[in-house]
Amino acid sequence: MKRRLVKIVVFVVALLPAAWLLRGLLIGDLGVNPAETIQLQTGRWALKFLLITLAVTPVRRIFHWNVVIQYRRMLGLFAFFYATLHLLTWIVFVHYFDVSFMIEDVFKRPFITVGMTVFVILFALAVTSNRWSIRKLGRKWGTLHRLVYLAAIGGVIHFWWLVKADITLPRRWAAAFAVLLGMRAWWWYQKRVTTSARRPVAAASGR
After folding, report:
1. Do the beta carbons of residue 46 and residue 77 sit within 8 Å?
2. CA distance 195 to 51
3. What confidence score (pLDDT) does residue 98 get?
4. For the whole model, what pTM was predicted?
5. Which whole-number Å values give the CA distances from 140 to 33, 51, 55, in the listed order?
6. Consecutive sets of 10 residues in the chain, 207 residues long: mean pLDDT of each?
7. Structural domain boundaries of the chain?
8. Buried-exposed string 137-171: b where 16+ CB fall within 10 A, e elsewhere
């Protein structure tokens, strides 16, 4: 019961940024360019939830707080949710549903190309974030969901190329993701070393 309550709280808190944007849009409190504000904020929240999702495993391993793993799927889906809002803002307020213009923009501007690639990855991860997909894909499921690292890197590049002038915030995002990915790379390396060390022992005992 307690875990279910925590999940509800996490769900509601994760929706607050969207609720704040909706409120601002309704009362006209999003500045002189509401569309740009919504687009920037939804993109940043997509990155934030990607960061939080990738931070779940390090938090679990470092602090031995295994309970956080049950929130990872929800947090990842919220990253996709805000990425979807970010894309919809671009479709509605920037291109006004002009498909040909959107296709041209994707191929013409590199930061749009990267952003669309990131969205496709997040879409693939979102639709396979269920038990049926895990059973159906088997080991391929884990390989597919490692693309979240590529999505995180692509998201930072998309943001970096978007702002152009003041890259202070993109640098901070890049540093944060670099730390998380560096931790995972170190753990992967340690696992490889441990596995390699065990093989000669196992071979010797087999004799």
Report:
1. no
2. 29
3. 86
4. 0.88
5. 44, 23, 23
6. 83 95 91 90 94 91 86 94 95 86 90 94 94 90 90 92 81 89 85 69 51
7. 2-99+107-198
8. eeeeeeeebebbbebbbbbbbbbbbbeeeeeeebe
